[in-house]
Amino acid sequence: MNLPVPDPILLTNSHDGLDGPTYKKRRLDECEEAFQGTKVFVMPNGMLKSNQQLVDIIEKVKPEIRLLIEKCNTVKMWVQLLIPRIEDGNNFGVSI
């Protein structure tokens, strides 16, 4: 595959003091080309194809995960209903 690779992001640790002299920060209102938000990489050739095997596996597993979530919620509700309620302080020493 011939995929274009974006330039690496160079990060410097300005907190260790080894990078040299610190420079004054520019005010954002002076910069006319300032854009708000995060930078997003865009593939110049458009969208990439997804892995079809993974898509098939995900489509098979999704309904089972939803069923498992429903069953877990049912068990959680059942356990909550089994816990006796303490009403008016008349619990006669029964507590959980």
Could you tell me the radius of gyration in angstroms? 29 Å
- Taken from the alpha-carbon principal axes, the silhouette is elongated
Number of helices: 1
Percent in helix: 25-40%
Query: What profile does the largest beta sheet have?
Result: none
Spell the H/E element sequence.
Answer: H
**Ends apart, CA distance between termini:** 62 Å
* Global mean pLDDT: 75
Provide the structure class.
Answer: mainly alpha
Poorly predicted regions: none
- Percent of residues in beta strands? under 5%
Describe this structure in words.
This protein is mainly α. The chain has a domain at 52-85. 32% of the residues lie in helices and 0% in strands. The chain is built from one helix and no strands.
Keywords:
96 residues, 0% strand, 1 helix, elongated
Question: Summarize this, please?
Answer:
The chain is built from one helix and no strands.
Topology:
Elements: H1 52-82
